[in-house]
Design a protein that fits this description.
The complex is a heterodimer of chains A (about 260) and B (about 400).
Chain A lengths: L2 H6 L6 E7 L5 H11 L3 E5 L10 H12 L4 H14 L5 E5 L1 H5 L3 H11 L3 E4 L11 H6 L3 E2 L2 E2 L8 H5 L6 E4 L12 H14 L4 E4 L5 H8 L4 E4 L1 H10 L4 H22 L1
Parallel strand pairs in A: 1-2, 1-9, 2-3, 3-4, 4-5, 6-7, 7-8, 8-9
Helix pairs in contact in A: 2-4, 2-12, 4-6, 10-12, 11-12
Chain B lengths: L19 E2 L2 E5 L5 H15 L2 H15 L5 E3 L1 H7 L3 E6 L9 H14 L4 E6 L3 H13 L3 E6 H6 L1 H9 L3 E5 L6 H14 L4 E3 L10 H9 L1 H14 L5 E5 L4 H7 L9 E9 L9 H4 L1 E5 L1 E6 L24 H9 L3 E6 H15 L5 H13 L8 E6 L7 H7 L5
Parallel strand pairs in B: 4-14, 5-6, 5-8, 6-7, 9-10, 9-14, 10-13
Antiparallel strand pairs in B: 1-2, 2-12, 3-4, 11-12
Helix pairs in contact in B: 2-4, 4-5, 4-9, 5-7, 9-11, 10-11, 14-15
Classes of the chains: A alpha/beta (about 260), B alpha/beta (about 400).
Bound molecules: pyridoxal-5'-phosphate.
The site of pyridoxal-5'-phosphate has 22 residues of chain B, from helix 5, helix 11 and helix 15.
Chain lengths: ~260, ~400
C-alpha cells in the first residue's frame, strides 16, 4: 500500500473518499475545495465516451468534460499539479479500461507514477482480466483498487483480493452510480464479511448522498465514497462550484468524524 | 533463432478458456456482472452437453423459423456480372426476415434453463429487437428493448412491430443515440437487474461467452450452406461473402468453412461516406481497444475515446466488431473489404430488379462486394453470398436516399 494510503487509513476517523470527473467545471479549484473541506482521499474520474457503469449525472459530467476537449494528458497534468499542491492527500484515478490501456498498461502505470497518483480503479477490468493493467501498476508501485459488489460471493472474493491494493471499494448496490443507496443493514453485513476476508481498508460507495448516510456507513466501514452528489453541485454551479463543493465536503467530513466518536 | 508466427492447426477451436481469440475477446465487465457471466458460461456448457437442448433448438429452427433457408442460384445476377456463379444464402426468408432469430432462439432457451424471467436486448436496425420480442412473445416472457433514439426515428416500422409483439421499447437519448448507446443502456439496466434478467446480445460481441455462443447458434447458416452447395455443385465454394456489423451472420456462414483452405472468405465492412469520411469500418479504420465487454478493433481517437460510426444501414452502424473477426483479420484467414453507402444503395436496387429479391441494406453491402469480385473470377468459380435479411424495413431509408417522397 502506498504510504499516503497507509497514513490516511490510520487516522482516528474513517476516510471521506470524494469523486469528481476531471475536466468538468474548474477541476483544480474543486480539488482544492475537497481537500480544504476535509476529504481524505480524492478519486479523479477519467472521462470516457461510453461510461457503462454510470447513471445520468456522471454520464453527463463525462460528456461535458469531453466536449471541452479534456485529454488524457490534461488529466495527468491536473494530477501532477494536485500532487504539488497537496503532497499528502492520496489521489486515485478512476475510469474505464479503454482510455487506460490504449497506449499500453505500462505507459499508463508509468504516467501515474510520474504524476504522483497513488491508486487506480478500473471499472471494466475485473480480476479475470488482471494482465491488462495489474502487473504494470504493481511494478510501478501504484495500487490497483478492486471493486467488490453484492454479487461477489465468498467463493469469488479471494480472486478479487488477489493483487488488490490501497483499499477495497465495496459497491453497495448492484447497479449504476447515482441511484438509491442500499439498505444500511445489508451494508453492515457485507462490510463485516469483507473485513473478515482482507486486511485492506474497506470503503463503501454508490448512492451515498447525505451526511447522515455517510455517518451511518462510517460506523462500520473504513471509508465512505461520495460521487454523484458532488457532480450534481458542479453541474448546478459550473465554474463557480468550489465554495459549494467545500461546504458540502465539510458537512460530510464532520458527519463522518462525529460518527466515529459515537461509535467509540 | 528465427521468429515464425505459427498459425493454429485449426481456426475453429477458439476461444480459449478465458474467452480470448488471440489478443481479442475476454470479459471486460464490471464486477457486478462477472459472477453472472461465469454462471452463463456454466449453463451454456451444460446445454452444449445436453442432447435435449439441441433437439429443442433444432425443432424451433425447423418449425418456427422455417429452416433450412434456401441456397438460391442467382442466375440473372451471375449472367449480368459475367464471372463466378453467385449463390445467395436466403436468411431473408427466415421468420422475422433476418438471421437474427437463429441466435434469439438459442439464447431464450438458455434463459429458460437459467430460470431468468425477464428479457432485455439492444437493437440498431430493429431486426434483433424484433427477433428478441418475437421469441419473448413465444415464450411468454416480458421483454424490454433498448434502441437509440435516432434509430427509433429511422426504423419506425420495426419499433411498431416490437410494440405489437408486446415489448417495451426504450428510446436511448445518451451519446449519439444509436446502437452503441443502446448497448450501454442495456448493460446499465442489466447490472441493476442481474438476479432475474437475461440479456440477449444480438451479435458476436460482448463479454465471453457471448461471442462464442452467438457464433454457435448462427453456425447453422454455414452448416446448411455447406450441405446445400455440395448437393447443388458437388463441391465446396471458392468464396464466401457476408456483411459484417458485429459479425454474427458472417461468422455463422464462415465458421464451418474456416478450416477449408481452398475457400476464400471475405467480410464486408460498411464504409459509409468512404474511409476518408464518416464510416463504420472498424478493421479498416480502427485499432484494438476495449468496449462493451471485449477487446476488439474499435473506431476511436488516440486517447481511446470511441468515435461515432456512420452507415446508411442501421445494422452496420457500430464502431466495433466481434472479437473473432478481429482475430481472423489479424491472422489473415478472412479478408475484410469496405463498401460505401452509395455502392450498397446501387446493389440494393440491382438485386431487386435482377432477382426479385429486396435485400436488407446490410446484405446489399455483401452483394456490392460480390459485384466487384465476381467479374474478376472465372465462370467455373462459385461464390456464396449471405443475404442476411430482407429489405422491407429499409424502403423508407432507400426512398429518402433516392430523393423519392413516399
Ligand atoms: C439483415 C442484417 N444483416 C446484418 C446485420 C449486422 O449484424 P451482424 O454483423 O451481427 O450479422 C444486421 C443487424 O441488424 C441485419 O439486420
Amino acid at each position: 500500500m502506498s504510504t499516503r494510503f497507509a497514513a490516511t487509513f490510520t487516522k482516528p476517523h474513517p476516510a471521506l473518499v470524494a469523486f469528481i470527473t476531471a475536466g468538468d467545471g474548474d477541476t483544480a479549484a474543486n480539488l482544492d475545495a475537497l481537500v480544504a473541506g476535509g476529504a481524505d482521499v480524492i478519486e479523479l474520474g477519467m472521462p470516457f465516451t461510453d461510461p457503462m457503469a454510470d447513471g445520468p449525472a456522471i454520464q453527463q459530467a463525462n460528456l461535458r468534460s469531453l466536449a471541452k476537449g479534456t485529454s488524457t494528458a490534461d488529466i495527468f497534468g491536473q494530477a501532477a499539479a494536485f500532487r504539488q499542491r497537496h503532497p499528502d492527500t492520496p489521489l486515485v484515478l478512476m475510469g474505464y479500461a479503454n482510455p487506460m490501456t490504449i497506449r499500453g498498461g505500462d505507459w499508463f502505470a508509468g504516467e501515474c507514477a510520474k504524476a504522483g497518483v497513488d491508486g487506480v480503479i478500473c471499472v471494466d477490468v475485473p480480476a479475470e482480466e488482471d494482465p491488462e493493467l495489474g502487473p504494470a501498476l504493481r511494478a510501478a508501485g501504484v495500487d490497483l483498487i478492486r471493486l467488490a459488489t453484492p454479487t461477489t460471493d465468498t467463493a469469488r472474493l479471494p480472486a478479487v483480493l488477489d493483487g488488490a491494493g490501497g483499499f477495497l471499494y465495496y459497491v453497495s448496490v448492484a447497479g449504476i452510480t447515482g441511484q438509491q443507496q442500499a439498505a444500511q443493514a445489508s451494508i453492515d453485513k457485507a462490510v463485516a464479511r469483507l473485513k473478515a476476508a482482507t486486511d485492506l481498508p474497506v470503503a463503501v460507495g454508490f448512492g451515498v448522498r447525505t451526511p447522515d448516510q455517510a455517518a451511518a456507513i462510517a460506523r462500520v466501514a473504513d471509508g465512505v465514497v461520495v460521487g454523484s452528489a458532488f457532480i450534481d453541485i458542479i453541474a448546478e454551479h459550473g465554474d463557480a462550484a468550489a465554495p459549494h463543493v467545500e461546504a458540502f465536503t465539510r458537512s460530510l467530513a464532520d458527519a463522518i468524524r462525529g460518527a466515529k466518536e459515537i461509535a467509540a | 533463432m528465427t521468429e515464425t508466427t505459427t498459425l493454429p492447426n485449426s481456426f475453429r477451436t477458439g476461444p480459449d478458456e478465458r474467452g480470448h481469440f488471440g489478443q481479442f475477446g475476454g470479459r471486460y465487465v464490471a464486477e457486478t456482472l462477472m459472477p453472472l457471466i461465469l454462471d452463463l458460461e456454466r449453463h451454456y456448457r451444460a446445454a452444449q452437453a445436453d442432447p435435449a437442448f439441441k433437439a429443442e433448438f433444432d425443432h424451433l429452427l425447423k418449425h418456427y423459423v422455417g429452416r433450412p433457408s434456401p441456397l438460391w442460384f442467382a442466375e440473372r445476377l451471375t449472367e449480368h456480372l459475367g464471372g463466378a456463379k453467385i449463390y445467395l444464402k436466403r436468411e431473408d426468408l427466415n421468420h422475422t426476415g433476418a438471421h437474427k432469430i437463429n441466435n434469439c432462439i438459442g439464447q431464450i432457451l438458455l434463459a429458460k434453463r437459467m430460470g431468468k424471467t425477464k428479457i432485455i436486448a439492444e437493437t440498431g436496425a430493429g431486426q434483433h429487437g424484433v427477433a428478441t420480442a418475437t421469441v419473448a412473445a413465444l415464450f411468454g416472457l416480458p421483454c424490454t428493448i433498448f434502441m437509440g433514439a435516432v434509430d427509433v426515428a429511422r426504423q419506425q416500422p420495426n419499433v411498431f412491430r416490437m410494440k405489437l409483439l408486446g415489448a417495451e421499447v426504450v428510446a436511448v437519448e445518451s451519446g449519439a443515440k444509436t446502437l452503441k448507446d443502446a448497448m450501454n443502456e442495456a448493460l446499465r439496466h442489466w447490472v441493476a437487474n442481474v438476479h432475474d434478467t437475461f440479456y440477449i446480445i444480438g451479435t458476436v460481441a460482448g463479454p465471453h461467452p457471448y461471442p462464442e455462443l452467438v457464433r454457435d447458434f448462427q453456425s447453422v447458416i454455414g452448416d446448411e450452406a455447406r450441405e446445400q452447395i455440395l448437393e447443388a455443385e458437388g463441391r465446396l465454394p471458392d468464396m464466401l461473402i457476408a456483411p459484417v456489423g458485429g459479425g454474427s451472420n458472417a461468422i455463422g456462414l464462415f465458421h464451418p468453412f474456416l478450416d477449408d483452405a481452398d475457400v476464400e472468405i471475405v467480410g464486408v465492412e460498411a464504409a459509409g461516406e468512404g474511409l476518408e469520411g464518416k464510416h463504420a469500418a472498424s478493421l479498416a479504420g480502427g485499432k484494438p481497444g476495449i468496449l462493451h465487454g471485449n477487446k476488439t478493433y474499435l473506431l476511436q481517437d488516440e486517447d481511446g475515446q470511441i468515435t461515432e460510426a456512420h452507415s446508411i444501414s442501421a445494422g452496420l452502424d457500430y464502431p466495433g466488431i466481434g472479437p473473432e473477426h478481429s482475430w481472423l483479420h489479424d491472422i489473415g484467414r478472412v479478408r475484410y473489404e469496405p463498401v460505401t453507402d452509395a455502392e450498397a444503395l446501387a446493389s440494393f436496387q440491382k438485386l431487386t430488379k435482377l432477382e426479385g429479391i429486396i435485400p436488407a441494406l446490410e446484405s446489399a453491402h455483401a452483394i456490392a462486394a460480390a459485384e466487384r469480385i465476381a467479374p474478376t473470377l472465372g465462370k467455373d468459380k462459385l461464390i456464396i453470398v449471405n443475404c442476411s435479411g430482407r429489405g422491407d424495413k429499409d424502403i423508407i431509408t432507400v426512398a429518402d436516399a433516392l430523393g423519392v417522397k413516399l
